[in-house]
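Notebook, p. 212. Picked up where the previous page left off. The plan for this session was modest: take the two constructs that came back from the sequencing core last week, fold each one, and keep the raw output in the notebook itself so nobody has to go hunting through shared drives later. Recording the first one now, exactly as returned: residue sequence, then the structure token string.
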Amino acid sequence: MMPGVTSDVFRYENDQLSAGGVPLAEIAQSVPTPFYVYDPKAALARFQALSNAFAGVPHLHCVALKANSQPALLRPLFAAGAGAEVVSGAELALAIALGVSGSRIVFSGVGKTDRELAAGIAADILLFLVESEAELEALDSLAFEAEKRARVALRLNFDIDARTHPHISTGMATAKFGIDRDDALALYRRHRDFPNLDFAGVHSHIGSQVTELDPLLENARALSSLVGEIRESGVSIRYVDVGGGLGIPYHGESTPAFDAYAEGVARAVRDLGVTLLTEPGRVLVGPAGALVARVLYVKRVHGREFVVVDAGLNDLLRPALYGAYHRVVPLARRKREVRVVDVTGAVCESSDVFARDRELPVPERGEHLAILDAGAYGFAMSSNYNLRPRPAEVVIEDGIFKVVREAETEAELVAREFGKAL
């Protein structure tokens, strides 16, 4: 294995980068680049390991569809008992279409529309994760109109530093998310003012790509300490949702082990007689995906060497948006000169850079590279910026690959601009 490649999903076999027994170069021979490739069995294995770690406590892992909504990745997880965490009406509809019952769905988000709230009520979802008093009032009114009672958990903002990138730190006082502790406690005590709502749980999600255990456990303990006070008000709390956020080692960094995470969280809630909910996303699907791109040009500017590929920030936004690190490796491993290069995309933005100052065997025009750990917030955040088609998605199953989403075409994008087919 060449330096920097530590993936347990994408690894070199006979000097060919492979996943699930399939060389990625074989896929690149028939699928135009760029494309995403996933190994669903890898995501499933991670889900099963997480579930096993929580075996000692009643729990439900609600997979975060925002990380990756590809049905081919989600179906095995749902078949294995996962629930769904959704943040939009379309995600809710997708989860239901994939066979997830409402009793296994939680609905997050600071700006749910009335239409989305009504859809969740109609589906009788497990919990609305409510972010404000105004949302409570809207939900209560809509439940009354539907002649139903909706279950809710208030999302707490405990001002906990997740020690992650500011753009994905959601549990601090400066974030738009959640309700502060005192206001939330006051709302729980006023539960009778919302007769069409069942205050069934508490919730807090402090951020994404959290690589230290302490903030996650602090969050669980803060939720646990609040449950007793809420119950004193006559509210029957049956669910504690600790959110998601477990990070993955993009750069080889240390990340919390499932067993240590489960032990700490379970310890915080074990004596409460509740069902524990979590919202894993990146930690399941991130390592299970890669973005494959083709080298267009190698060029020098003021002594700096650039490897320009046919993917761009419209395909994988994370490096441009967060300065995120992704390993970049060739599909074929062979002896050649290693130089320090920048791997850049084709979009007309200076921020369209996948890797800076990276040691890489200098590729040739037409060669393929893989950007690893791209299974989470990759295709899900893709766009048509520069009027570029979004890439294909490919899955590997039982030693073969298949395209599960065709790449968009330039003709389709042009037709969309005119609002009709050409």
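Okay, moving on. Second construct, recorded in the same format:
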Amino acid sequence: MVLWLAVACTGTPEPVGPAPDARPVSLARGDLAYLADPVVGYPLVIDSGRERALREAWRALVEEGASSQALAVAGDLLAVDPGLHPATVLAAQVGFARRDYAAAAAALRPVVEELPGYGAAQLLMGRLSEELGHLPEAYSAYRAASGDSDLAAERAAEILPRALDILAHRLDEALGRGWLEEAEGLLVTLTAWDPDATVTLEATRRVATRRGDPEGELAAVIRLGERFPERRDLIERRGELELEVGDPASGLEIFTALVDQFPGDPTLAEKLERARFRWRLNLLPEVAQRAAAEVELRRGSFAVLLYWLVSDVRYRRPERPRIATDILDHPQREAITRVINLGLMDIDDTVHHFSPEDPLRQGSALAALLSVLAELSERPAACIGPAGPGQAWETVCASAVRCQLLTDPVECLPQASLSGAEAVELIRRTLKQL
């Protein structure tokens, strides 16, 4: 361990390790600019005698390269008062002058963490972090010092793009490892540093997608689309999100324009059909629109969607009436009763409860929709297989894939919750089979 680090970290003036070189250090003019007077901007009270000693030692360091003298003064002061931050800064300046960047940064870090507005410490911390290749840390320090230092402001502006890229890469790594909380913390920093940067908007979009926040993703996609109006992926994603949580009319308009531009694209044709179906929800009663907007759909709300989106549910006469005692006072009793009596959704026969406020599970929704195909279709398709409540989940999943309610078996997650928008899409695919 070098002498100056022992002084800075322990406040002990006795030498540790080899004696320092007493010859003056030679600093380039550019490096001298980062050695600000450690007393200037110090936010705590310091007595005049110590202030004078610090300034004389600092001047000797920057004007004559007298690093040993500066280190001795810092050591003497820290021996008396280990919490005298300007003395630690002076010792770190000696470390910088001697190009011992890692040790200088380690000694200085507690100071900037305790006093983030201490300009002389932050200016030096920025330069040390640059020398060590830690650009986000360098930008953070320069940013903190920029109010007191034009040099810090210039360096901050120059390295900001690279610092943002590094943070965005760290954020992607965190998402890749499933560390959402860490990614969200990095996003907070990106947004504080430059909320309008493209990398920040892209990161905002990725984090919103991972946390299941379609509104947040839509806001980011809209801003990115304004910046890159020709990016088809952004246009399509905005259309999908508008249909899900935004303005369905805007989503319909987006996909109509895309189909006109790319008339032979079957994927776009399917998305336009979905957009038209979603837009028709605007014509239904408000209770159906509210159900479609639920983030975690309830069983009663799914019954409402079936009632209003599948016309046969409203008009078909049930043949096996059943009673659920927990919906007698429910505002959507008629819709729920019709769905139960058509055999599309089950009740607990032991207590005769439908549990309308319980979350809907994907498996129950798929079983109900397969029952729609089996019970309400004039000529049930061969894809249906065994249908109805109570069947094994493997059977439900296999039938759902055969009937194109799902595109891949891995999408079948029977115990997963469903949003209203996801349920609406499943109902649309069911009606397509009808």
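Notes on construct two before I forget. The CA atoms of residues 367 and 391 lie 8 Å apart.
Flagging for discussion at group meeting.
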